[in-house]
# Entry
Amino acid sequence: MNSQIKLDINSDDVLENQYYISDIRKINDDYFMTHGIKMKFHVITYGCQMNEHDSEKMIAMLKNMGYEAVDAYKDADLIVFNTCAVRENAELRVFGNLGHVNHLKKTKKNLIVVVSGCMMQQPHIVKEIKEKYKFVDIVFGTHNVHNFPKLIKNVLQNQKQVIEVWDSEGHIIEGLPYERKLGLKAYVNIMFGCNNFCTYCIVPYTRGRERSREKEHILQEIKKLADDGVREITLLGQNVNSYGKTFDIPYNFADLLTDVSKIDGIKRIRFMTSHPKDLSDQLINVIAENKKVCEYVHLPIQTGSNSVLKRMNRKYTKENYMEIVNKLKDKIPNLTLSTDLIIGFPGETDADNDETIELIKEIEFDAAFTFIYSKREGTPAAKLEDSIPEDIQHLRFNKVLTVINNIIKEKNAKRLGNVYEVLVEGRANRDDSYLIGRSRENFLITFKGSDDLIGELVDVKITRPKNFSLEGEIINTPV
Ligand code: SAH
Ligand code: SF4
Ligand code: F3S
# Structure
């Protein structure tokens, strides 16, 4: 089910773009009247949930402009690449895919090619697109999403490349509609940007300074979502634990979680991402005691070595991290904990990597997203010497991955016979008799069942634990 909600609070910029949306809608409706088919779009998203949610906003705008979604990019009249800059391989994939689209554009003259997102916040990338990818029609950055309709109108009128990249954030844009992939789950931005400046990370440069949305705006949005059938929401921010720090009145992330949980209809509340330095006791208590807040925390550690943590500017030690984990595990017995790891940061030694492995074994994460360090121009770490040769990075990466995979396999095996409440999301695969969903703990669970269970909460007993997911049988369906 696809669903879009309209919000009552609209920024002037959103209202201005309504005119462009109606203009383009007229053009696209005329096209439909004369050709009998709709203009089509395809959006390709790279990177994190923040980007996925931005894509949801673009998709809503495109549909309001009269475009129709299409599965294959070859069939589209407008293609969007919403890009990520966090690691080099994400950037390389975008340039590779742009190459394919160049071929397509030669046979399809009216195709509109759009590139947006974090990569566009880097001047050298925009320069490269201007010089080498002249067929790209629209370039815009992370602070310009609301102007998407204006930029399309511009291209339709002038048929010239348009570029709009603000180099710093303006005020928070309220009121952009968005299209949810699943009717029952929604992402909600609670804050934008990041002030942490971890030395390896490009995000503070691509997303700007940290700013929190007003709680009233967030709560109103979630109420509307609940009325529209949403049962699970994920509150989004690069560092949700520092929500509200810029407010005049004391109001923090734990307070927000408590207020969100009072909204009728919402059954599960998730959040991403938590930075260990800001995880308060008040927050731990809310996760432990509030029935709607899921017992799942994604808490990136990055490395188990204090000297590397210091050079990463993470502002905590492994001892601080352990202390938080122990508190979490104490207060929340059924906690699921996942993490992010960076392997091969400049100057990392074999001994540092061993410390990371020790810590992983001690904590026994339920999931870990492990990345090889990627040098990002413009970040402080790019200037560090002692970069680690690729073959050593790979060796260490594989060592870490083997340890993690073994832990997860063992933990999953112990889940045999456990019963989990699963929110059914859909078919595991097309034409499959299996349904798929997630438990409160964020476990991916598959089980046999009929379509009418999609969108429902069911109890599933695990019968076949696998390496990265769990298979089970429904023992209790909703009445
Ligand atoms: N705001 C989140 C993470 C955003 S980026 C947080 O601080 O937890 C997601 C993950 O990408 C990071 O946690 C980190 O593990 C990884 N990452 C960021 N920059 C990277 C780089 N230059 N090389 C490799 N991995 C990186
Ligand atoms: Fe990047 Fe660090 Fe901010 Fe996360 S907290 S987005 S890793 S700078
Ligand atoms: Fe990538 Fe931007 Fe997210 S760099 S990880 S898409 S904030």
